[in-house]
Write a structure and sequence with these properties.
The complex is a heterodimer.
Chain A lengths: L5 E6 L2 H13 L5 E4 L7 H5 L6 H27 L12 H27 L23 E6 L7 H10 L3 E6 L3
Antiparallel strand pairs in A: 1-3, 1-4, 2-3
Chain B lengths: L11 H6 L13 H13 L4 H27 L14 H25 L9 H22 L25 H34 L2 H11 L6 H34 L11 H28 L7 H31 L3 H12 L3 H13 L7 H4 L2 H28 L14 H24 L5 H7 L16
The chains are: A alpha+beta, B mainly alpha.
């Protein structure tokens, strides 16, 4: 048997998964995750997770977008190509608000999507969990707890026994075979 | 205990907890039966109706390509445009298609922020509708420039002429607003699709699994992923909400910032937005009723969902009706004789037929939804949704053409009649739209599975009052 990469255990419903998450956290595991077909309300607290920093990424991106938008219009209309149109000032900032706003939103949306990809380390097409056959039902109706072998407390036998003791079924050591 | 071999059934505790409440999904569905139902649509044999509709759609697309080809070869002279009426059907169709898109974003973003969970049944295909409608919309200004190979003039690209676009022009605002709208809608849609693509991936085999796996990006449904994912979804909804309100407002400024009587009014932006949502819901309703019937989605898109959509049609339709009447009042109250003339001319002039088609379809039709019986009648709502689509197209026609054909100088007045190429291009744009839409129905999950599952009572941990529940 090759080196274990992690342990996977199945739970029967969202309430049990939340319960298991609290127990895994209290047992001192750090590198574990709770998998479900849909997000479960209250899971972040149960797992003891910090708030997502995505808001800061999006905030920075929106401000960048607005600056790029206003900057582009300022530069083209006053420095690069100043042209009097309908007697309006070169820097007609009121008229420039709309494009500024559009780029504010556009950059923010890119920040939200690609920031999320970055925080989630996506795309990642290879992951030890994909070796598990039963894990395929995680996107259907199954609820799993996985504990990675890289966790300091990890020990294939003990972790397996621990997950069984908190109510996990189909406990499986993932080995990459 | 082997839960793998047992077919999951509705948990008695969960069912009891919501007894009396209205269930969003009827028919006693479980997580797994929902997966089978929605994934089955793209995995099983395609219904014959699909092939029939697809053949019609592709024929329409060919008509469009032919019309555009002839336009590029010959120039905009093939259209019915004349001297005062420089904006004909191309602009009418542009505004019509952009408007259609707005319902999708309203459902996906605004109703999300308002925590209207019933949106989950319809948001996926409403968002798809948005994207395809905006593609149709973007096409029209692109070909309206006549020399399509010069369409890049619209973008701020450094060029050999050392000139830049005029950012004070609403037409340029429009480019930015609509292109941003298209991009953000597509991102929003794709983010929503990721967990469902993973569902399809996990059910597929061989090459199909690899292709779907590529697009699912390796989604594992872990809460460490869901946390950022939900945050991203919330952020996108927050960004898309002001965006969708601004897009049609900017489209309205294309008209409102000009000095043409009948266009130069401050009511235009809110009135356009209400009209856009109204027309979009008309289209969502038409599409939902057809798709629901063909694919047997009555349990997911229930009569309650349809009734809620009809209520939105009633609200936005009444806002549109109010705007029509208020425009008239202001035209009279302003004391501006040109403005007054423009409105009398709309209702009683050479285009009175178009005005009254618009008025009947948009003002009278939605009022039937005050009655619960009619709100819940499928034939009634189907016919009403078609009338809304027709009425909203005529609204844009009335606004664009009546004002232009009767400008300040009577000697320049002219009557606009579309040519056959105007009509073929418009019919063809439906071909483009339905080609995309049918391909979407065929290859992608048309219901947001992960989100619908999240609305089941079984998804809420609080609905399990078992011993281990609250430790």
């Amino acid at each position: 048997m090759s080196k274990p990469l992690g342990v996977l255990a199945r739970f029967s419903n969202p309430a049990e998964l939340i319960d298991a998450a609290k127990k895994v956290r209290d047992a001192g595991y750090q590198k574990f995750d709770c998998h479900s077909p849909f997000p479960i309300h209250g899971m972040d607290d149960a797992m003891g997770m910090k708030r997502s920093p995505l808001g800061f990424i999006v905030g920075a991106m929106t401000l960048t977008g607005a600056a790029v938008g206003m900057g582009l219009q300022y530069w083209t209309s006053t420095i690069e190509y100043p042209l009097v149109i309908s007697g309006k000032p070169f820097f007609s900032w009121q008229a420039f608000i709309i494009v500024t706003f559009a780029l504010f939103v556009l950059f923010g949306a890119f920040g939200a999507v690609f920031g999320m990809f970055h925080l989630n380390r996506l795309p990642r097409l290879h992951h030890p969990l994909f070796y598990s056959k039963q894990f395929e039902s995680v996107t259907d109706d199954a609820f799993f707890v996985s504990i990675e072998a890289e966790d300091e407390k990890f020990d294939a036998t003990q972790t397996q026994a621990f997950l069984s003791s908190i109510g996990g079924s189909n406990v499986e050591v993932i080995t990459g075979e | 205990m082997s839960i793998l071999n047992k077919k999951p059934e509705r948990d008695p505790g969960a069912a009891e907890a919501v007894a009396g409440d209205e269930l969003l999904v009827t028919g006693g569905h479980t997580f797994s039966s929902l997966t089978d139902k929605v994934s089955g649509i793209v995995e099983k044999k395609t219904p014959q109706q699909w092939y029939l509709l697809f053949a019609m759609a592709v024929s329409g697309l060919m008509v469009l390509l032919g019309s555009i080809g002839w336009l590029v070869w010959e120039g905009t002279g093939i259209w019915g445009l004349n001297n005062p009426v420089g904006w004909g059907w191309a602009i009418v169709n542009f505004v019509f298609w952009v408007g259609i898109g707005h319902a999708g974003t309203l459902i996906s973003a605004i109703l999300f922020l308002l925590r209207q969970q019933w949106r989950t049944a319809i948001n996926r295909f409403a968002e798809a509708m948005t994207i395809f409608a905006v593609i149709c919309a973007l096409m029209f200004p692109g070909i309206h420039v006549g020399r399509v190979w010069l369409a890049y003039y619209m973008f701020p690209i450094p060029n050999q002429m050392l000139i830049w676009p005029n950012f004070r022009s609403p037409l340029l605002w429009d480019i930015f607003a609509v292109v941003t709208y298209f991009t953000v809608s597509t991102l929003f849609w794709y983010v929503g699709l990721i967990p469902d693509l993973a569902t399809l991936r996990d059910r597929a085999k061989n090459l199909r699994k690899k292709v779907l796996g590529l697009f699912a990006l390796g989604w594992r449904g872990g809460n460490r992923q869901w946390q950022h994912y939900e945050k991203a979804y919330l952020m996108l909804a927050g960004l898309a909400t002001p965006l969708v309100l601004s897009v049609h407002s900017v489209v309205a400024t294309d008209f409102a910032t000009s000095l043409i009587p009948g266009w130069h009014t401050t009511i235009f932006p809110p009135y356009f937005v209400a009209g856009a949502v109204f027309s979009g819901f008309g289209m969502v309703m038409t599409l939902a009723l057809i798709a629901r019937k063909i694919y047997g989605l009555q349990d997911i898109i229930t009569l309650n969902h349809l009734e809620k959509m009809n209520k939105i049609i009633l609200v936005t339709g009444s806002m549109v009706g109010y705007s029509y009447i208020m425009e008239f009042f202001i035209a009279w109250y302003s004391g501006n004789e040109f403005e007054y003339f423009a409105f009398i001319n709309r209702a009683l002039g050479p285009y009175a037929w178009a005005y009254w088609i618009m008025f009947l379809c948009n003002v009278i039709t939605p009022q039937i939804f005050w009655f619960k019986k009619l709100r819940r009648s499928i034939p009634v709502m189907f016919v009403a949704s078609i009338f809304v689509n027709i009425g909203m197209w005529f609204e844009r026609f009335v606004i664009t053409v009546t004002s232009l054909s009767r400008d300040f100088l009577p000697s320049s007045w002219d009557y606009y009649t579309p040519s056959i190429w105007d009509m073929l291009t418009f019919i063809g744009s439906f071909g483009l739209f339905f080609t995309f839409f049918l391909l979407f129905l065929r290859f992608l999950p048309m219901v947001a599975l992960a989100e619908v599952k999240g609305t089941l009572p079984e998804a809420d941990p609080h609905n399990y009052h078992k011993e281990g529940g609250d430790k």
